[in-house]
Amino acid sequence: MFSKTGIPLFEEMTWKEVADALQQTDICIIPVGAIEQHGYHLPLGTDTYIAQEIACRACSVLDKRGCKALVGPTIPYGVHPEAMHYPGSLQVMPSTLVLLLKEMCVGLQKMGFNHIILLMGHDGNVPAMQVAVQELEIENNLDVMCVNWLLPHLGDQKRLVPLDFADGHGGARETSRALSSFPDLVKMELAEPYIPSFPKKDVPCSAEPVLGGAVYRPIKVPSMAYYPDNCPGQDGDASYATAEAGDALYDALGVWLADLMVQEYELKSKEDM
Amino acid sequence: MFSKTGIPLFEEMTWKEVADALQQTDICIIPVGAIEQHGYHLPLGTDTYIAQEIACRACSVLDKRGCKALVGPTIPYGVHPEAMHYPGSLQVMPSTLVLLLKEMCVGLQKMGFNHIILLMGHDGNVPAMQVAVQELEIENNLDVMCVNWLLPHLGDQKRLVPLDFADGHGGARETSRALSSFPDLVKMELAEPYIPSFPKKDVPCSAEPVLGGAVYRPIKVPSMAYYPDNCPGQDGDASYATAEAGDALYDALGVWLADLMVQEYELKSKEDM
Amino acid sequence: MFSKTGIPLFEEMTWKEVADALQQTDICIIPVGAIEQHGYHLPLGTDTYIAQEIACRACSVLDKRGCKALVGPTIPYGVHPEAMHYPGSLQVMPSTLVLLLKEMCVGLQKMGFNHIILLMGHDGNVPAMQVAVQELEIENNLDVMCVNWLLPHLGDQKRLVPLDFADGHGGARETSRALSSFPDLVKMELAEPYIPSFPKKDVPCSAEPVLGGAVYRPIKVPSMAYYPDNCPGQDGDASYATAEAGDALYDALGVWLADLMVQEYELKSKEDM
Amino acid sequence: MFSKTGIPLFEEMTWKEVADALQQTDICIIPVGAIEQHGYHLPLGTDTYIAQEIACRACSVLDKRGCKALVGPTIPYGVHPEAMHYPGSLQVMPSTLVLLLKEMCVGLQKMGFNHIILLMGHDGNVPAMQVAVQELEIENNLDVMCVNWLLPHLGDQKRLVPLDFADGHGGARETSRALSSFPDLVKMELAEPYIPSFPKKDVPCSAEPVLGGAVYRPIKVPSMAYYPDNCPGQDGDASYATAEAGDALYDALGVWLADLMVQEYELKSKEDM
Amino acid sequence: MFSKTGIPLFEEMTWKEVADALQQTDICIIPVGAIEQHGYHLPLGTDTYIAQEIACRACSVLDKRGCKALVGPTIPYGVHPEAMHYPGSLQVMPSTLVLLLKEMCVGLQKMGFNHIILLMGHDGNVPAMQVAVQELEIENNLDVMCVNWLLPHLGDQKRLVPLDFADGHGGARETSRALSSFPDLVKMELAEPYIPSFPKKDVPCSAEPVLGGAVYRPIKVPSMAYYPDNCPGQDGDASYATAEAGDALYDALGVWLADLMVQEYELKSKEDM
Amino acid sequence: MFSKTGIPLFEEMTWKEVADALQQTDICIIPVGAIEQHGYHLPLGTDTYIAQEIACRACSVLDKRGCKALVGPTIPYGVHPEAMHYPGSLQVMPSTLVLLLKEMCVGLQKMGFNHIILLMGHDGNVPAMQVAVQELEIENNLDVMCVNWLLPHLGDQKRLVPLDFADGHGGARETSRALSSFPDLVKMELAEPYIPSFPKKDVPCSAEPVLGGAVYRPIKVPSMAYYPDNCPGQDGDASYATAEAGDALYDALGVWLADLMVQEYELKSKEDM
């Protein structure tokens, strides 16, 4: 089974298990990942695996509170034009991702899932995920929620894995999560530190929306300019990563997502009843 | 001419004026608006007109600094499922908006514009605008930037139009902008105050992304639940609006956008040269 | 307000005004224009502005007869491959125009408009407008009518603005209309006469369909061959234009369109009742 | 072989014959027909067969003048929402027809055909044919010409088959053409006269564009209202039809189309050289 | 009339004949052909004409058993990338073929046909035909059956036209069928024998699926490599063909298809009743 | 790591490992699975997991012969209208699957993979896989091969797991493969035998194409009729399954697929060089 939480992925369940779960819940979480380079030491599917684990953690937290949700089918494809000069990076067009997300959600709705979460595993997918949400509302009156955990997680990351240098894509915090949930696929011995220097931006809010800013200009996102030849393709120093830190990061994410679901869907925990 | 700044809209220019402008700049700003209800007192095209004026203000600021940009063709259509129960609200599908934005940008690129800004006039359009930006990068290697001014503008709005009650869609600040740039279309005598009460959200970052949050769930955005029958369809009290405040709000937005363009495109003002 | 007739554009109305109008009428007219070069002296949006004014004139005529119709949302994009070598000309693909027209009409139908007119502002749009009409009939059983005023207007044009040389795109008659409804955007001082010589066509009916012919071959329509380098991009001599003539031309068009609506929709004027 | 002219259809030729023809010409004519009810006596494919014969006639006329063109592949599908209440009528969506026409033309272009005519066999197809022509010009820079012979043929029809009552779809003139080129499929014994009365239209040019008018409103085109239950589905009296008249009608059409091709493509006949 | 069986094609029928037939049957067979090179001696439309005749034969067999089915509208376009280097070969994209097939079937369903057969005329069309069948089931719950007669016919072909060398595309057996049903379009005097040598394949089932194998790799299907310059474009020796053999081949195919329809649709013949 | 063969999945590799592999091979195998009910005891992702393992086995066989290929990114979605009445079954439209397959293959081609295999994991996907192959050949001149192992495997299955009753979807042989490669997801204790009785088909070749037949009629494929309420949703008796048998079945499939690749791509093993 994929996750140590004991929460199965949709694809790992039998049809009867899904049918039984539908007696208890109409919520499912679709992790939306990517096939994208993540340095010398992390697998291409890193974003997918992490999103799956976050979803499992949230379901596990809910379980303990007497609520239930499923980790719906995984979408392992993403949009990342800035990473395409690395062999192995393989993206879908945003429009295709929209189409695929819509078909999955409509299928789940027919099955009985009335509340669906599209869980971000890779930030470049958020626009397509949001378009899918809108079109599903317009065409199907379906309640789909797009969740990006990067922003709420910023504080936890700095608190749980304090570092005094830049740490992002493939860095110590992401590697910590990888060591926690899919250690067999992490090649720590190949990790090389690399701290790219990003240009300073003085104008307020000129960061990307997924980081709380207001400006989306992917053509200038870290690419060949920041990741020159022979660069491992990451931001940060993975040697600071530990499975324990990863576990703590996942815990924080799982609780946040479970809280969000309780708030949004007005779930009643056992204690409440 | 539309704008008091003296900056013409693309459609208002002759072909020769565009041809001449292309000798001096390869930047243009596409305002992306909506046809959406805005209370009893504001026209359906409010978002479009405001985005056009912000673009003109930024071009005017740049002009004074010796730089130039055009206000490209306007897209007057938007996505707003939450407003469709008001007659007059007329939306496009996000996918159609993507298609239209892409054709406009590719056409502008062929004409010589290498830097294009999609300027938000209505927040529900941001996902489609971002998808267009991605697909234009992937398919055309075109540098398009999606700009949402809501977030950077939050502080200015509170400073320039201080209010101690909720103010949003169609409220005092938006009405101020309307009074500044298209007063003939504002029917102040019909404005009625209406302050909907939104549910409190305790989970961190559970606001919408366009407001700096992490959760996109449009089906729960203010709709019939918040705007009951016989409600004017707005958040706030337009009677606090003044043209002067609107002018000051536009000024702040124009400077911010101009600064952003200088930063992103590394423009050199006259003083620098 | 855009039109001196006092008839507002859809985007200029509040939602309540649309709601009230729907108590009296279920007809609206969608002007379909273009962003296309129109010589040194007319703006790129000329076709859009003229179609808007014709629609307003027809509504004004109907108003006086006790009938009502709205000028629905404007479509400012057109198809004009023959004008694309002029900077500023910016076109949509016909298929995209079809899509946009269909979404607008379906939205208007949901709002309560059961009779919709697509009013030609640029002749190259007519095929896409007709395809939209067909698909709306087939898919939505919606009554949409595509109206091309070029043909019925030929006689009026010659009568009201007699000329003994060729006059077409951007010429004295079109400039007259511009001087009547959007004089601030006309740069008469820049106008230069240019009378292209079109090849003679002896075979009967080998003109374009929009002019009453039977042959559609846009690749041979006036283009670089007729509009050589340094040519202003027009047919005719704008110096013969006057606002008064333009006003008279609009009057004739407004009456024709109003009469057509009365005939097609079997409207009853006050006198009839 | 389909046509008595001896001109083969594209599908009837071998690849070698096409290859040889391409040494002499780069012109082909695509007949675009329909599968539509044509009264009790004419087959569903009437429009297709007639368009094929007109194309063959034109090629035959050209042949005699020392010029050459092929009758390209036939498109046997059409758009006719007004005929769908008759079993047997089977239409395509206009967008699908556009797609199919574009693929055929692009394929012919790759093969060496640089001048392609889309020949109307059914008037409801003209909008889709024109959109295809535009998109082929925009995307492929291909010279495609859409030809509607209804209008130039009006005079010849009245002269060659004089009648003092209405005659249209499935009437004496169309039946004459059928008797001339596909008599085996005409069931004269089943023909029943039916002269529907169309509403009078006083507003100038309010006829359909394909008949020289300016108004396209297919939902009001002859349909159930004019063709009531138990009506054969035609306009006119087929008993006035003769094969000889049909032959004369085809001759006139063939000469007109050949003349048009000579004019448009500046063909040189043998005598000219 | 196309077929000597006396069974008319759909396009050859009047609407009334279709209406009457619908009283007796709800089955129709759509022949799906191609415009593809077939050697020096066979027309481009060979696959279309053969599929039409097979459908007519099956209907004729059913007729004799007191059952009825129509030969629905023909699709004369196919997919054959391997034949595109021969002038005259003209293909559609598979996606376009899917779209066209779906529209035809949905139209037939509305007319009353609840059982539709897509009859293979060209093997490269089978994937698109099957996709159409699936989407029609998913979207329309329509019973469409895709039938490929190549495989069941292998034995009959060898028995009825025994040959001791390779015989395939355009060979003696296909030419026999052509001589039987459309002899006027066969140019036997131009036929040239050509026996290409295909590479031996030892791995079990590595033939194409339409021939009972498991491997689909069209880029390696006979193409320029096997059909060099100046090659007629066929497999086999047409001089062994006879109309009598073709007639026998058609008979076998007609009986097989009729038997299949009886089995699948549980038809009751007159004797059974 | 997913497979005991030690062959990693694409998503499990780092970008550098893909880059290095591209020095040795330009072949990759894309497993195409499904999310479909598989009885009470097998997970919804069964077809996906099995296709992945077959691909790994073939790569492992090639490795031993000194050749190399990658197991490309997995497509976990399938087409199975006949299984949609079971909760948990979640399908894509064939057209969407075509789109996704094409984007993946084009991306892999840009990366350097010139030979791509689409490996069937679920038979209903074969038509979409073949359409993708055709369109990739036509549009991208890319060599993609669609492989269906059901047919060549029939003999091995009967030999390695001899049974005297029907065994298919979710039966003893499929369960054996599951026990071999993903035993943790098999719930043998829940398995219930179920042997549906399929109607006898006497007409030759009237089986489905994926089983060597000629007739594709999915609406009649085992569905509610064969799988009544309270039926586990399988053909056969899983209690006869063993991991050892599954291993042997995989071995046979791996060798067959490796042999096929050697044959098709003319690979040279170490011994040959």
Structural description of this entry:
Six copies of one chain form a homohexamer. With 273 residues, the first copy, chain A, is α/β, with parallel strands linked by helices. The first copy, chain A, has a single domain, classed as Rossmann fold. Chain A contains seven helices and five strands, in the order H-E-H-E-H-E-H-E-H-H-E-H. A four-stranded parallel β-sheet of chain A has the order 2-1-3-4. In chain A, helix 4 links the parallel strand 3 and strand 4. Chain A starts with 14 loop residues before the first helix and ends in an 8-residue tail after the last helix. Chains B and C meet through helix 1 and helix 3 of B and helix 1 and helix 3 of C. Strand 5 of chain A pairs antiparallel with strand 4 of chain B, so a sheet runs across the interface.
